[in-house]
Specification:
The chain has strands spanning 2-7, 10-13, 18-26, 31-39, 46-51, 57-59, 67-72, 77-82, 91-101, 104-109, 113-118. The chain has 119 residues and is mostly beta strands. The strands form two sheets. Strands 2, 4, 5, 6, 9, 10 and 11 form a seven-stranded mixed beta sheet that branches. A four-stranded antiparallel beta sheet has the order 1-3-8-7, with no helix packed on it. The N and C termini lie far apart (39 Å).
Amino acid sequence: QVQLVESGGGLVQAGGSLRLSCGASGNIFSIDAMGWYRQAPGQQRELVAAITSGGSTDYSDSVKGRFIISRDNAQSMMYLQMNSLRPEDTAEYYCNADGAVGSGYYISWGQGTQVTVSS
């Protein structure tokens, strides 16, 4: 499995930008897809953006055109550039990675980083 650590969250005004980072360690060569999820208080965790090992990306409709996910496999890092932030983007953001080791399949999560957007 892999261990994931997020950073880059904080407080920003509406319309501003933040860049989240996720560092991976451990069995990094086993990682397939990675993604960013978020969870607001009282709501379910939802997918924000995902990126495959080959660089294909997918976004939720709510962030499409505003957020950009990227990945640096050589540095074992993943990023989420968040632009034109809105108060409804306020949530705990989690890094996610999945992959296979031997005959097993795993999903790993980071501890989360808080993003707060003020109006």
